Fold this sequence. Notes:
The complex is a heterodimer.
Chain A: H1 3-24, H2 45-48, H3 66-69, H4 71-77, H5 98-110, E1 118-120, H6 123-126, H7 150-156, E2 171-174, H8 179-192, E3 202-204, H9 208-215, H10 222-239, E4 246-248, H11 251-255, H12 260-280, H13 285-288, E5 292-294, H14 303-324, H15 330-333, H16 355-368, H17 390-406, H18 420-443, H19 446-451, H20 454-471, H21 503-523, H22 526-541, H23 548-556, H24 561-572
Parallel strand pairs in A: 1-2, 2-3, 4-5
Chain B: E1 8-12, H1 21-32, E2 36-39, H2 46-55, E3 60-65, H3 70-83, E4 90-95, H4 99-108, E5 112-114, H5 120-138
Helix pairs in contact in B: 2-3, 3-4
Amino acid sequence: MDRDLVAETRRQWEEEVLEPRVRRFNLPESPTRFYTPLDTDHGDFLEKVGFPGWFPFTAGNSPFDYWRAHARTAALFGYRPDWGGGGKVGKYGGFGTPADYRDYLLRMQAMGRKGGPNMAFDLATQCGYDSDSPHAEGEVGRVGVAVDSFRDFAVIYEAFTGELDIDKVPSNFTINAPACVIIAMYTALAARRGIDPAKLTGTPQNDILKEFISRGTYIFPPRPSMRLFRDTLTFMRKHMPLMNVNSIGGYHIREAGATREQDLAFSMANGIAYIQAGIDGGLMVDDFAPMFTFNAFGGSMEIYHEIAFQRAARRMWAHIVRDRFGARDKRSMMIRQPITAHIGCSSTTLKRPLNNLTRSVIGGIAAGMSGGLPGAYPPFDEPLGLGHSQEAVQLQIDATRILIYEAKVADVCDPWAGSYFMESLTDKIEEEALAELEKVEKMGGAIAAIENGYMQRAVAKSAYERQKRIEGLEEFVVGVNCFTGENEIEIMVNRVVEATYDPELMETAEERQKASLAALRRERDGRAVLSSLKALEAKAKDEKENLMPVICECVENDCTLGEICDVLRNVFGEAQPVKL
Amino acid sequence: MHAEPRIRVLIAKPGLDGHERGAQVVSYGLRDQGFEVIYTGIRQRPEQIVDAAIQEDVDVVGLSILSGAHVALTAKVLEGLRSRGAGDILVLVGGVIPDDDRQKLLDMGVAAVYTSGAKIEDIAGFIRSSVRALEGGKGSR
């Protein structure tokens, strides 16, 4: 191809076609852009894109995902992804007391929903407070299940025995700051059941850095938090080699308001800090990086950009892990995430909520075109309050099925590869994220950029900028800041919410959980509790110690999660919220 | 509004929920609209919010709640303000508030409820007119 000829022809085209058209409509500039070979420097396809499953993974982690291999079977047998089963985790959930949640899980299993536990914890547990703490008031069992002690944890698992025992189904724990305590409980449970911890599978979220940037359930300052991460990592690698180490979330950062480039840069910076923690713990990168997972990067309606974002993210991570850390195992270099692109929950609108179905389909298309399950997410009633209705979930799952089976969105791997536009956009997103990453690294990396509040403030400012663009009508959201006139029809949504969790149980959970905690405090061996907590305190003061064995001892002796966190608070101090 | 003292607003996040995008955006927005804004940061207990409101002598408290605990937490803040003789402080609530609970909050004494899609301009307008009406009624606090 003669690039000079293309350039000359482009100049001619602009003069003869583009510019007259722009003038005709009296526009300051063209509202569209046409891409040519001049927009990419893609001499080298192998270097920039490559084959799916090979470095740099731009085209995908593999030629097709496991679900694609089973697509026909799934259709023939009516597989419901939200039910779990087949050795996978079930639907993310949790509420009330451990007994409430156990009974709920048993009911689900009786209906054939046999996935492993995919646990949501209440906010008190996530923030390291016992249910009888004044901080826990009103929060017990609300957004997840309350877990104060190993006894509680074991009660939940009464629903998982026999063919669903913990050496047969995986467990996911959506918890970060006290992840070490929950991992210790999982270990203790295996010991009690006589199961080799080496057989345990599952994923703790264990991504504390994004909690500082976006989700807010931190306890200790960043550095001791990262020490706990290091301890969980080396402990799990030694004793639970099948467990994933973490689930790194870019999605939360975007939902908190980050731009696409900030999201990518900060997620990569966090990933780098986690790898460094493993290396500081004395391991080689390939010993642990294959067990890192990622929690769905993405989160906007801009379909082209979200596809390019996935491609850029895969390439960026692969280069970072290989070039900086010297990884040789390709599994270390891959972004392992359950889904790829998607719209964010913050892309959904409370106004005319059925439109959110249309929105989620856009996200599903972006996912299907970027190496993922074309999952339409979230259900359209997401912004209406906690808990999706059965109708909304059915529509969401059907939309995904329509994209797979009727639209055949996922029949081509990286369908945009080689597009002048997509390659140029992928390069641009990567470049901008790299520039932002460099800025963070000049500050000393993710931990320093969290300590000085840079990341938190940058995200908050971006959130405000977006709000200003929406209020200033520079950006349009249908049914929110445009097309809201009297000629529009308000679609009423008839949502028959099957109360997923019994409201009566929710109402009384706090009292019942406090009573069972009081019983535990009475019945346990107080001396063993004190001596374990003392041992924890001593070891916490020595940065070189791995705290996991002593935390295991604490949970086995019925120390509560709040007590363990209190000891660590005394030694480590507490993280403070960032002022604007 | 140059000569008048600026309206003081406390934006607060009660409870343990850490999703603070809304609180931050409203804080920045009201600041740009000329209000004096104090943002507490996340994870404040209702008593701390009441203390801060009284210490900072604010005209308005804006509570941001996305955890589903809005009725209980708001009741605590309202009670606290009333028992400390600061019941005239305007209390607004923002967040994920189902329609059924909106009226409940208004009946409890919340001046207005804002959910996703609300405009900062509208919130600012509401605060200005309400605070002015309040001051017209009983003189400045």
